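does this look right to u?? iron/sulfur cluster version
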Amino acid sequence: MLLEGLEKFRKDIETCFGTSCNFCEKVCPVYQIQKRKTLTARGRNRIIIGILYDKLRPSTAMTQTVYQCTMCGACERWCALPDTAIFCNFREYLVNNGFENDFHKKNYENIIRYGNPYGDKNKYAWLQGQKSNEDSNTLFFAGCTYPLKSPDVLKLIIKLLGTDLKMMPNEPCCGSYFLRTGYKSIQMQLSEELLNYLEKENIKEIITACPGCYSTIKGSIDNSKLSSKVQVIHATERIAEKLEELTGKRNKKDKLLTKVTYHDPCHLGRLGGIFESPRKILKCCCEEVIEMEHNRYDANCCGVGGGVRASFQSLSEDIGKKRIEEARNTGADILTTACPFCELQFRSIGGMEVRNVFELLYRYVMNDE
Ligand code: SF4
Ligand code: SF4
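got this back:
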């Protein structure tokens, strides 16, 4: 029954069963909406123990349970176990046993065919007019959501980063979607393709503005022979280093007259450890940055990740609405973030003006109120 991926976590799962401490429950955004214990990390680990002890068989009902998780990692903050890695393998186990989620299967086919889950042929259209510096050792990795959903933001990110960037004409998918929805072997093939390219082109650093690409590519590089040779950088980190150079001509009194609050994207913040560079950018260009009650490691999820938006839209929106409510409670005028997925989610739910960190900085640098 292809149990290796779960067997590898047997001790962890038995520990969960033994302690049943339930710390995971109170922070789980899915549990807070659904109020069903099977949808917490503990609930899922219980199902896995049933499989490992040959008491349960894969089923469609299991698919419903395992895919109602945004992979936000909030449970891992309170749990000693690698819960999201366990859930990735649980999803893979179900897929390998013929229990695929229809939405993810469709997105999977889109990525294979078009290089992105949206099934859009125009992933590379944004490259028109962009200059790739072929001699550079710094690769810019665009991902698919910025090019297809926010190409204008992507272009201004490039302007903020400067000209020393190499760009791939046929950039592959980073594999994040595959990794988190049960198709890990495909993510590993894509990762191999990218690692070979990095080695061949002697790339020393790779910059991306997408938190999903950032965490996936970093995970691949950290576990490869390139770990000491290639650095993975989020665009907010590089831009935060260049703030003085970028804003040198601007008067600090000319800051954007706006109060903002910042939403930490799960893959950049809690799972990527990057909290301060986006805040540094915002403090540089906005009148005031007000923190939400849950911020940094404790930030609440926007509800999009782990394929939840694709297959459980109403759950995803309910989680997103809670986060927008938290943002509104700060009294800020604008909800900002540094992730194209979170941005799209908040914009589509509505109730507050949403802006990308890069967009606000660009307005300030260009003196464009
Ligand atoms: S916090 Fe971890 S060990 Fe405790 S019940 Fe939740 S998943 Fe199990
Ligand atoms: S990763 Fe997030 S959504 Fe999934 S079980 Fe943990 S806290 Fe809940």
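The pocket of iron/sulfur cluster (ligand 2) is lined by residues 27-30, 40-41, 69-75, 83-84 (CB under 6 Å). idk if thats expected tbh
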